[in-house]
């Protein structure tokens, strides 16, 4: 009986949208002098690096947006480089794709991650234009077709976009990018595993905090444009919610590593471990991909609705906070209180703030409900003059003759004038 041939698998770690530099809902860390939120993002990055080293992955694939700002601070760049260097010097190649947040404000200026190419750092590859890379790993060579974020000006001239609507321009960009993917796929060696790495918005994906993105404001590729059969795996960045758009071939957004805001409160954060097997004859390579969760900062919203008859609204709020138990500890908490105007002054702010003392950061928002004033003729009383209000009132009363109404209106006008002049 012959021995079974062991199938060799290439292990690739796919992540994206690191966004170092997000500092909202943070505070100053007295030990480092840096924002505690920067610490959150670096902690998530450290977990990823540790996982890659411990599990001896063959390649770390980063699909864009290293920083939140187009011009990151020296500290942010130093911390990013430390972790990339730790992977590279331990023999793990790192592929870095340029995202929209990585592009400088002016054309011609260097990108924030270009320094790795400039210094020719071993085992680090940076792509700011569509290319085919063949990267040696401990499990053999892998091909990566790169599709970084491309400015409209890089694809279309002013003459080409003249008199076109945003929709028409984006349609032209979609066609150009589709043609780029198809052309680069033709350059691939079918004997080697191949990956498309793209920082782009694919239609049908569910967005996280990037809710402001709508068709017409930026170019969108159709799923069929990226799910090219020449690729064993399509690794995506740009959308912050991890998701699988297609199974064969796999089209996958890794999502962001850490929560950016309350819009991502319910999203799991982490990265994908992709395993690509050997090719069997003329068939496809076996590909598996598993999501690994990173435990990040929790975002918690506590909503409290105060009734007018509540004699101790502070106690009601404190009870709602207590019901969340340990969820409050070390979380970013948003306390949202809806209350009638008449009880607004009954709150003991110090007690509420004390109850939220274990939160990493908290905000308190009050929605004051004010009773609608009596409406006269479809208009609120405070929106019209006293004389018009009296006129509307008299018109609405039954049993008052027109003559009597005119007399009352004259007396009313006289009283109003006397009140104004003080006579």
User: Cα-atom Rg, whole angstroms?
Assistant: 31 Å
Largest sheet, spatial ordering of strands: 4-3-2-1-11-12
How many strand elements?
A: 17
How would you classify the helix and strand content by structural class? alpha/beta
Measured between the Cα atoms of the first and last residue, the distance is 118 Å
Report the mean per-residue pLDDT as an integer.
86
Order of helices and strands: EHEHEHEEEHHHEHEEEEEEHEHEEEHH
* Largest sheet data: 6 strands, mixed
Q: Helicity, in percent?
A: 25-40%
Unreliable sequence segments:
1-7, 210-216
Shape: elongated
Oligomer: single chain
| Percent of sequence in beta strands | 15-25%
The number of helical runs is 11
Structural write-up:
This protein is an alpha/beta fold. Helices cover 29% and strands 23% of the residues. The strands form 4 sheets. Strands 4-3-2-1-11-12 form a 6-stranded mixed beta sheet, with helices on one face. Strands 5-6-7-8-10-9 form a 6-stranded mixed beta sheet, with helices on one face. It is elongated, with a radius of gyration of 31 Å. The termini are far apart. Residues 1-7 and 210-216 have low confidence and may be disordered.
